[in-house]
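The protein record quoted for completeness.
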Amino acid sequence: MMRRPHVYVITLCAMLALAGCGGPAPAPGGDTAPPETSVAGNSTVPADEGTPVDGDWVINLLPVEPQHLNPLLEGADAYTQRIGLDIFESLLDVDKDTFELKPMLAESYEISEDHLTYTFHMRKDAKFSDGVPVTAHDVKFTYDAIMNPSNETEERRSYIQDVTRAEVLDDYTIRFTCTKPYYLHLGALGNSMYAMCVLPKHIYEKNDFNTSPSNRHPVGSGPYAFESWETNQQIVLRRNDNYWNPAEKGHVDKIVYKIISDDNAAFQVLERQELDAVPLMPEQWVTRASTPQFEAKFDKLKYWGSTGYSYSFTYIGWNMRKPQLSDKRARQALTMLLNRDEVVETLFYGLAQVVTGATDPKTPESNPSIEPWPFDPERAKALLDEAGWTDHNSDGVRDKDGVEFTFELLYTPGLPVIDQMATFYQEELKRAGIRMNIRRIEWAAFLDSVQKRNFDAVVLSWAVPPNEDLYQIFHSTQTEKGSNYPGLVNAEVDKLLEDIRVEFDRDKRIPMFHRIDAILHEEQPYTFLYTRQALVAVDKRFRGVKVYNLGLDLSEWWVPKDQQRYSGQ
């Protein structure tokens, strides 16, 4: 995988480049429908745009400050991954449209017939930004770091847990040996969206991996190098002029990520043209971004999916360890007390759709027979009564065994749509005899609470690469460490997830995914909310702006000399 937790949806991240460390690795037979695209202005790169030139900066929005910039560690959210795409690289890259794996740091590879041995032959001209060559020793160091149980790398480890040996055959050849086959092993070993990008051994071996200073001052082999991090202000990358691959070298001199946590404040900065590329809220897209003045300055792009991922969805995760949330009937009732259709139509202006599961509804893995739980307060109340949650003391709040049905909904601030949804939901729950308290905390503290399972309910999103398996987020081994935050323990789900991993025939995996969808629908560890379209505004001075199946590729962007805004700075 690399699914990343983040608040709201992936399109809130500054999701603007695929250059660097990879993207999702497809399984055999993978396919994803092309994104819907709506483009204003010259974003479709007409043939007369001219020859790309270097120079200028691109100023991106970063809605939260990352905990660190080490993509392998826990807490490496979507924002860490986004920035890491430009700094770090993988053995294999992914085609932006077809999702096919292709060479990056590895020129070629071989897979044994039993799918238990993977041998990568690395190119000899790749270097890290400090000039040190990239070798097989760096790959082995990265593998060892992920597998070290002392390191906070559980999410990555879940993808290569059956890889038991990494052998350096020579400076530019490495072989991995597995105890069992896994249909995503090539992607997990070869590409960073699942498990591995390549870190420089000579940098990261100097300190404890979890607390290394390099986690805030990273060094990689990608087309951009880390320059600075001003806390609560911005993170700056500069073009790596020593980058080994001239064909993939970016054109802009710097990529600046301005940290602005409030959507409305970010839009105001965008209107002043102090930001160049910003994901928009539906209300902004429909109203403020549709004026002639705005469209004269910015191109607007609309598409399903997001950079580095083919699908993302937002959900409320229920901590099933809590007595109020341990009964599936209570969780089903909670879902039926939220009018998701109204959320989509009213708050998202129809630019989203309700989802029923974790698999992309555009793919065969999604179970077409499942209908969303309806908005049905009366049925919800009956389920709560059936589960024993009634108002025994007539104080207006349901209770059971001396425990009130009260819980806290946790999310991060600066998200007006989530604020509105939470307020509507709070009132509906109150009418049903449930008290929901709303708490907003900043991103780092939010992630810490989620990782420590110190929550009742959280609003989160997952960004899903093509042809994903769901082991990381639903297998019972991931309940304490890993991404099974609700604490779902279901023997049938475990068996299906394990069987999916060793099945290389997609047609045989599909019914297993369908069964998982059905179980999740019944158990409701999540209230699945919606998937929404990416809505992005890009300053019109940029050329080479295309929408691919994996989103936008910043390495292709450039600005004509006479329109460059930051030249010489």
About this structure: The radius of gyration is 23 Å.
